[in-house]
UniProtKB/TrEMBL annotation:
It comes from the Bacteria. GMP binds at N153, H154, F155, A156, E157, H256, N257, S294, H313, G314, A315, G316. This is 3'-phosphate/5'-hydroxy nucleic acid ligase. Its cofactor is Mn(2+). It comes from Undibacterium pigrum. Its EC number is 6.5.1.8. Keywords: GTP-binding, Ligase, Manganese, Metal-binding, Nucleotide-binding, RNA repair. It is an enzyme of class 6 (ligase).
Length: 397
């Protein structure tokens, strides 16, 4: 187990192995972040990769101050998983594209009424999100993006279970391997980006003292963005389920970009997660790419302290977006890249994005999973494979 938890310095550790490639630049960003004034410890997860200034796939613990820049601009980005009642053998792959239609367009009044007929609780949630935005001094116009996925690595994916490792936990989670599952990855859209920009304009990248007015102001906005992001995922799922004429039960919904207050030994600590899935909130989903498996995991909370109660949130990028087309265009056309080894399809109107989000652009998920298993942080409940992935360029984050 020891080899999988590598202590690089007093404050810096990584969950990794000799067989998992982590870029030097990402490790360097991790070490630089550990030097911030109020930082206690940082951990790089096996999907660690370089980000804008700070690495992605990492958790950071600070004392008395916290750093909004360490949450990043897509506050509340996360994954939600739904078990649908759509039988696998009823799915007609060729028809799904038309059935699902366009998810880039905001939800209009007609569609909203149709969603409410099926999911009346969305109305209360939307009202609460609006109240949260108003209380935080944010513009209600941001609500317009609710129900849209957003660009880049965000996605909605229909999946099927191809292996169950822990039948008891699988059943307890109300999962069904003869029925389609829906995994949604999205966040707070332009809202999170606006909040971070506003913060950086006023305070640059400085930490905020726990009891300061600026901290209270940021946290009010951050918490509104978390609720917004969770509702956004719920609305994306509702749109898809309605269009597929099936029902869906929520299995999990977990943010991977957030900051959380932690009380320990009378100290005021802050746990930042930037592309890191909390391991202390129940089941988690570890997706690879649109051409790789996803794993449903049971975190082992008893070992959580070594990784700051955080897990990898995916496979992590291997190639920069700007390199993908050059690397791939001689090898495959966008049409070829839209079909995967699993026989699954990709809906993506943007041809450039098909290259940027190609499975080859991501690390191998099994090598990431092996580190989590080696460090004794998780057990595997089931493995899913993709059936259909919806990706869009969308606007912003
Ligand atoms: N199953 C799929 N997994 C995907 C897809 N696109 C990206 N990914 C994985 O999700 C994480 C998300 O990372 P984030 O930093 O944007 O939050 C990423 O590391 C990939 O491993 C997909 O289309 N399907
Ligand atoms: Mn995001
Ligand atoms: Mn994300």
């Amino acid at each position: 187990m020891g080899n999988f938890i590598q202590q690089l310095s007093e404050r810096v550790s990584v969950i990794a192995s000799d067989r998992l490639w982590l870029e030097d630049s990402a490790i360097q960003q991790l070490k630089t972040t550990a030097q911030l004034t109020h930082m206690s410890s940082v951990v790089g997860l096996p999907d660690l990769h370089p980000g804008r200034g700070y690495p992605v796939g990492a958790a950071f613990l600070s004392q008395n101050h916290f750093y909004p820049a360490l949450v990043g601009n897509d506050i509340g980005c996360g994954m939600s998983l739904y078990q649908t009642d759509l039988a696998i053998n009823k799915v007609k792959l060729d028809k799904l594209d038309k059935q699902i239609g366009n998810l880039d367009e905001p939800v209009d009044e007609d569609e909203w009424q149709q969603l409410l007929d099926i999911y009346p609780d969305l109305s209360t949630r939307k009202q609460l999100v609006a109240e949260g935005l108003l209380a935080a001094g944010l513009d209600l116009l941001q609500m317009r993006s609710l129900g849209t996925i957003g660009g880049g690595n965000h996605f909605a994916e229909l999946q099927i279970t191809d292996r169950v490792d822990d039948a008891g936990s699988y059943k307890a989670a109300n999962l069904h391997n003869k029925r389609v599952q829906l995994l949604v990855h999205s966040g707070s859209r332009g809202l999170g980006q606006f909040i971070l920009r506003q913060h950086v304009d006023a305070h640059s990248h400085a930490g905020l003292a726990s009891d300061s007015e600026a901290a209270t102001d940021y946290l009010r906005k951050h918490n509104a963005a978390l609720d917004y992001a969770a509702l956004n995922r719920a609305m994306i799922a509702a749109r898809i389920l309605r269009r597929l004429r099936c029902n869906g039960e929520l299995v999990l919904d977990v943010h991977h970009n957030l900051v959380t207050p932690v009380q320990a030994d009378g100290k005021s600590l802050w746990l930042h997660r930037k592309g890191a899935t909390p391991s202390d909130q129940g089941l988690v989903m570890l997706p690879g790419s649109r051409g790789d498996y996803s794993y449903l995991l049971q975190p082992k909370t008893e070992n959580g302290a070594v990784s700051l109660y955080s897990l990898a949130h995916g496979a992590g990028r291997k190639w920069q977006r700007t390199d993908c087309k050059d690397r791939l265009f001689k090898l495959a056309t966008p049409d070829q890249l839209s079909r995967t080894e699993f026989g699954s399809r990709v809906i993506c109107a943007d041809r450039a994005l098909i290259y940027e989000e190609a499975p080859q652009a991501y690390k191998n998920l099994d090598s990431v999973l092996n580190c989590l298993l080696g460090a004794d942080l998780v057990t595997v409940i089931a493995r899913n494979k993709p059936l259909l992935t919806y990706k869009t360029r969308g606007e912003c984050c």
